[in-house]
């Protein structure tokens, strides 16, 4: 179970441990509050493993540990839950390095971990459950780096689902609504990220969009945080069903409003979907350069 420092991973680790399963839970920081909470609240069956998905040596060390401790018993399930995003901005304003980091954690890390555990999962006819995001299916404003990595992850897991059917391995995707997890709902974190982004932008680009443009995006996102759901049980139950149900769903959609969102996405024109996403999530103001043009046209 990857990504157990907080949020879905930590809650799922506790839940599966309470059900009596032997859980291997990876954390980024073994001395952090999340790891300490798991040590305090879980049974001795749970094993904490330090893993940074951007470091192949960490992944290989975890793979070796799991192989050594499951050779006789087998491995029933893998939950790809680790995720990363620290940028809320237009694609043009998002540094290329942020796209690379999102891909390293959300896509390549999960790919390497999954491929490494497939021999054990194939032998058991087990399960792969992966937490992706609706942002990988729909073009949420200001989430290009995160959304692109989740789109790649979702397609990868759908491919694994098709290819692993002959082996009896079932693969499910979890596409949650907006939940309160880790730093995702900490306004101080996002204010700091916004300041760092502004400081890093080329002067010409910042002039074209305007610092107030980024301020407004950040303000709207922090406002959106207020609708984040604190009760993670719907997601935990979906992950558990993906692991244990005789016929798990291919996709789970825990969270309010997702049915309407996907209906609009699939059946209505693109412009309706774009308007809906701006109204639901973030509706950026006009960039500064376009505001000047409008002002100039009005004078004429």
TrEMBL record:
Keywords from UniProt, A to Z, are: Lipid metabolism, Oxidoreductase, Steroid metabolism
- SUPFAM superfamilies the UniProt entry points to: NAD(P)-binding Rossmann-fold domains (SSF51735)
Q: In which pathway does it act?
A: Steroid metabolism
The chemistry this enzyme catalyses reads: 11beta,17beta-dihydroxyandrost-4-ene-3-one + NAD(+) = 17beta-hydroxyandrost-4-ene-3,11-dione + NADH + H(+); an 11beta-hydroxysteroid + NAD(+) = an 11-oxosteroid + NADH + H(+); 11beta-hydroxyandrost-4-ene-3,17-dione + NAD(+) = androst-4-ene-3,11,17-trione + NADH + H(+); corticosterone + NAD(+) = 11-dehydrocorticosterone + NADH + H(+)
Task: Tell me the first and last residues of the signal peptide.
Answer: none
Picking any one GO biological process from the record gives:
glucocorticoid metabolic process
* Keyword Nucleus annotated: no
In terms of PROSITE patterns, this protein maps to: ADH_SHORT
Record Gene3D superfamilies: NAD(P)-binding Rossmann-like Domain
Keyword Lipid metabolism among record annotations:
yes
- Gene Ontology molecular-function annotations: 11-beta-hydroxysteroid dehydrogenase (NAD+) activity
**One Pfam annotation, family name?**
adh_short
| Superkingdom field | Eukaryota
**InterPro entries for the chain:** NAD(P)-bd_dom_sf (IPR036291), Sc_DH/Rdtase_CS (IPR020904), SDR_fam (IPR002347)
Question: What does the similarity note say?
Answer: Belongs to the short-chain dehydrogenases/reductases (SDR) family.
Q: What is this protein called?
A: 11-beta-hydroxysteroid dehydrogenase type 2
Recorded source organism is: Smutsornis africanus
Originating gene: Hsd11b2
């Amino acid at each position: 179970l990857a990504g157990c420092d907080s949020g879905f991973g930590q809650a799922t680790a506790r839940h599966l441990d309470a059900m009596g399963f032997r859980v291997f839970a990876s954390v980024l920081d073994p001395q952090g509050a999340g790891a300490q909470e798991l040590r305090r609240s879980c049974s001795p069956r749970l094993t904490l493993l330090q893993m940074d998905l951007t470091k192949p040596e960490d992944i290989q060390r975890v793979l070796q540990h799991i192989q050594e401790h499951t050779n006789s018993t087998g491995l029933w399930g893998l939950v790809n839950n680790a995720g990363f995003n620290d940028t809320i901005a237009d694609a043009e304003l998002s540094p290329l390095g942020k796209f690379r980091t999102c891909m390293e954690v959300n896509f390549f890390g999960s790919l390497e971990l999954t491929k490494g555990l497939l021999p054990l999962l194939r032998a058991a006819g087990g399960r792969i459950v992966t937490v992706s995001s609706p942002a990988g299916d729909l073009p949420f404003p200001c989430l290009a780096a995160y959304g692109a990595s989740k789109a790649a992850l979702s397609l990868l897991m759908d491919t694994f689902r098709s290819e692993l059917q002959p082996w009896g391995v079932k693969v499910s995707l979890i596409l949650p609504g907006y939940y309160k997890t880790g730093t995702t709902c900490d306004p101080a974190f996002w204010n700091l990220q916004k300041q760092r982004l502004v400081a890093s932008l080329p002067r010409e680009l910042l002039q074209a969009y305007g610092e107030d443009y980024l301020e407004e995006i950040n303000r709207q996102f922090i406002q959106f945080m207020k609708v984040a759901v604190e009760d993670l049980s719907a997601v935990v139950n979906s992950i558990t069903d993906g692991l244990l149900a005789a016929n798990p769903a291919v996709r789970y959609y825990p969270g309010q409003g997702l049915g309407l969102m996907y209906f609009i996405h699939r059946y209505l024109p693109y412009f309706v979907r774009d308007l809906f996403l701006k109204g639901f999530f973030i509706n950026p103001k006009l960039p500064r350069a376009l505001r000047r043009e409008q002002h100039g046209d009005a004078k004429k």
